[in-house]
């Protein structure tokens, strides 16, 4: 059975509730894992307590600081933050850290920016070595949600990972962003399934619950699992309702 992870930045969010309460709500809804974005703005002790209370897993979080890897001047600050992020990930038993490439910067050529990304990730692989944590570089769509972002192509993301050539570094493959960019999953992933460290799903238009739009998410997931993907699927969508039954229905519809 496929395993899913609720992105509690959006799912189980209720006005006035503490962030850690979303972990309890996810557990009550039958989820066995959660993920979130920034860790520096959260009560880590409260999250630790909720995780211990529920036994739920933390699948991943963002590697901070979220600064542009496309700018070579940011490398050392990013590596310092990565070391701290690895410690937090290990605290929660999370196996994935998520990184973003940053904006396409006009003061550098595309080649220079790509070289900066590869350099940062290569050094980051040394930080990650032996930690039990992998880093996923995430391509994002540049037509709706992330105009001006450097990395909109899954193929280029995978090419960057191959250029780094380290098992600690892969990509987060977000089926929503990929579909918005008009990509065909089979064509862009090809035989490089082992470079995917984590998946994200949402439907389009709206970036809402799977099943509310026109992306063939179940079919794409079927193919990815048939190729050997065995990680979790992150439910990173803007829910149209906070009813736990709706989340359970999404999980069922996607093969959970």
From TrEMBL:
InterPro entries: HyI-like (IPR026040), Sugar_Epim/Isomerase (IPR050417), Xyl_isomerase-like_sf (IPR036237), Xyl_isomerase-like_TIM-brl (IPR013022). PANTHER family: ISOMERASE (PTHR43489). Belongs to the hyi family. Pfam families: AP_endonuc_2. Keywords: Isomerase, Pyruvate. This is Hydroxypyruvate isomerase. GO terms for molecular function: isomerase activity. Residues 23-248 form the Xylose isomerase-like TIM barrel domain. The active site is at 138 (proton donor/acceptor), 236 (proton donor/acceptor).
């Amino acid at each position: 059975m496929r395993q899913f992870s609720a992105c509690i930045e959006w799912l189980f969010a209720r006005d006035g509730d503490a962030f850690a309460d979303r972990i309890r709500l996810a557990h009550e809804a039958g989820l066995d894992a959660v993920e979130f974005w920034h860790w520096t703005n959260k009560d880590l002790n409260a999250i630790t307590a909720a995780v211990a209370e529920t036994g739920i897993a933390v699948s991943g979080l963002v590697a901070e600081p979220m600064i542009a890897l496309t700018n070579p001047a940011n490398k050392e600050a990013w590596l310092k933050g990565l070391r701290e992020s690895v410690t937090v990930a290990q605290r929660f038993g999370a196996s994935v850290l998520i990184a973003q490439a940053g904006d396409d910067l006009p003061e550098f050529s595309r080649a220079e920016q790509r070289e900066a990304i590869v350099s940062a990730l290569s050094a980051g692989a040394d930080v990650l070595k032996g930690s039990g944590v992998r880093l996923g570089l995430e391509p994002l769509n540049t037509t709706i949600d992330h105009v001006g972002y450097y990395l909109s192509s899954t193929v280029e993301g995978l090419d960057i990972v191959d250029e780094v050539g380290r098992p600690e570094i892969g990509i987060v493959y977000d089926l929503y962003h990929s579909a918005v960019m008009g990509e065909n999953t089979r064509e862009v992933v090809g035989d490089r399934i082992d470079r995917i460290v984590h998946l994200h799903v949402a439907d389009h238009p709206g970036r809402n619950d799977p099943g509310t739009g026109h992306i063939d998410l179940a079919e794409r997931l079927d193919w990815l699992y048939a190729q050997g993907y065995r990680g979790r699927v992150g439910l990173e969508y803007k829910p149209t309702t906070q009813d736990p039954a709706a989340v359970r229905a999404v999980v069922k519809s996607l093969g959970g």
